[in-house]
Amino acid sequence: MAGKKVALACTVCGSRNYTITENAQRAERLEVRKFCKHCGKHTLHKETR
């Protein structure tokens, strides 16, 4: 069975560029620096639910 998908949203423009599988063991929301194709640079992306 496939896990539930959650999106990573750019903190600058709000675009949801990436999806990951949800991890029930992670207590805090994931924050990673990823490339945003809308901003054209690496920005902080936060997990949305």
What's this entry about, in short?
By secondary structure, the chain is mainly beta.
Task: Provide the descriptors you would attach to this structure in a database record.
mainly beta, ribonucleoprotein, 4 strands, Ribosomal_bL33_sf, 49 residues, single chain, Rubrerythrin, domain 2, 51% strand, structural constituent of ribosome
Stretches where pLDDT is under 50 for at least 5 consecutive residues are none
Radius of gyration: 11 Å
Strand residue content: over 45%
Let me know the largest β-sheet. 4 strands, antiparallel
Total DSSP E strands: 4
Order of helices and strands: EEEE
The CATH topology is given as: Rubrerythrin, domain 2
Could you tell me the mean pLDDT?
93
How many domains, in number, for the residues?
1
CATH homologous superfamily (4th level) name: Ribosomal protein L33
Shape: elongated
Count the DSSP helices: 0
| Helical/strand content category | mainly beta
InterPro entries: Ribosomal_bL33, Ribosomal_bL33_sf, Ribosomal_zn-bd
Family: Belongs to the bacterial ribosomal protein bL33 family.
GO biological process, one term: translation
Keywords: Ribonucleoprotein, Ribosomal protein
Explain this structure to me?
The protein is mainly β and 49 residues long. It has a 4-stranded antiparallel sheet, with no helix packed on it. It has a single domain (5-47), classed as Single Sheet (Rubrerythrin, domain 2). The chain contains no helices and 4 strands. The mean pLDDT is 93. Helix content is 0%, strand content 51%. The protein has strands at residues 5-10, 16-21, 31-36, 41-47.
